[in-house]
Amino acid sequence: MTVVQGYEGSLRDGSGNMVGEITGFTLTIEQNTEQHNAFGSAWVTTTATNKSWNVDGTGFHDPNDAYQDNIITDIISGDSKYDIELRVEGDTAGDKKYTGEVVLGNVALEGVADGVIGFSFSGQGNGSTTQGAVT
Question: Closest by alpha carbon to 87, among 4, 3, 29, 8?
Fold first, then answer.
């Protein structure tokens, strides 16, 4: 069984620039379903309908990272659309990646007196996400 070390992943903008100090991300793809049956059938049939996806990212705030700052600026400016690339295996040609446009829902800077300032964001997919390969 092959496993991938978590530190090999990365979160990037649509141009492939790595967003700094990200320590985790979650990509969720949802397939909606509809169950139905007709008279004369005791068994329910399930049909796949539409899909949606979202992404969450967490890490530490780096005020000097332009790509992290772009996420903050996009939501403040009201644009809130951000092209994203999630590399789940690493940076070697052929490794899997997921890309798409998200509409940012929130960005948070989290501070505690005895820690480091945190950074997190979430966004809903705008259209489809695609699975591809690092080139």
Answer: 8
